Amino acid sequence: MEFAKPLPSYLVTRYHGWKATSYEENQGWYRRLATEGQRPRAMVISCCDSRVHVTSIFGADQGEFFIHRNIANLVPPYAPDGDHHGTSAAVEYAVTALKVSHLIVLGHSQCGGVQGCIDMCKGNAPQLEEKTSFVGRWMEILKPKFGGVADIDDPVEQARQFERQAVVASLENLMTFPFIESAVKAGQLSLHGLWTDIGEGGLECYDPKTGAFEAV
Ligand SMILES: [Zn+2]
What is the distance between the alpha carbons of residues 24 and 30, in angstroms, rounded to a whole number? Predict the structure, then answer.
C-alpha cells in the first residue's frame, strides 16, 4: 500500500510526550484496562466535528465512554437489510454485548451536517442531492424533521433548533431497534438527548415531558 505515509512529525512528538507523561504516570491503570477489558457505563453518539469533545465536557477517562461519532450525531432507523451499518453496529455492540446503562446522543451548535440538511431542504444544495454524496444521503435521516423548523425566519435560530431535532430524531430511531426498545422497557437502559453550545460551553438536556431542551 504505497499511499500510506509515515506519521507527521508533530504527531510523533506529541505521542512521545504522552507516553512519557500521561501513560507513564498511569501505567497500572492502562494495564488493568488491557487485562480486565472495558466496562463502560455509557455510550455516547456525537458528531465528528472536532470541536465536540465529550470526554472533556464530562472529565471522562479511558474506559468510561463507548463513543461513536458520525456526521450530525444521527442514528438511522433499524434496517436489517444486509448492508454496512456502522452506527447500528456500534449501538448493537454497546447495548447487547457491553450492556451499557446509558445511551447519550450529543448534538451541538454550528453543526455543518445539520446546516447541509437545511440547505438541501431549501433546495440550495444540489451537490448534496447527488446520489454519490454520502453526506447528502446520510443527512436524509434528518429531513423528515425539517417541517418542525421550516417557519423559523432567523437562520441562526433555525439551525440551532434543527440541531436539537437531530438529537430527537436519533432518540426516536434508537427506539426502533428491538434490543433497545426491550432494554429500555426492562429498565436496563436509559436514553438521553443533549445539545451543547460550543462557544458558550452550555449544555442542554431533552425533557420528554415538554419536548424542549433545558439547561443542565
Ligand atoms: Zn456536527
Answer: 9
Strands (E), the chain: 42-47, 65-70, 102-108, 190-197, 202-207, 212-215
Quick one: pLDDT band at residue 1, thresholds 50, 70, 90? confident
145 Cα–ligand 1 center, Å: 16
Confidence of residue 188 (pLDDT cuts 50, 70, 90): very high
Mean pLDDT calculated for residue range 124-129: 97
Q: Average pLDDT over the chain, rounded to whole? A: 97
Ligand 1 centroid to Cα of residue 27, in Å, is 34
pLDDT confidence band for 114 (50 / 70 / 90): very high
Residues near 117 by Cβ (< 8 Å), separated by ≥ 6? Answer: 72, 139, 142, 143, 146, 162
Q: What DSSP string describes 171-197?
A: HHHHTTSHHHHHHHHTTS-EEEEEEEE
Ligand 1 centroid from CA 37, angstroms: 30
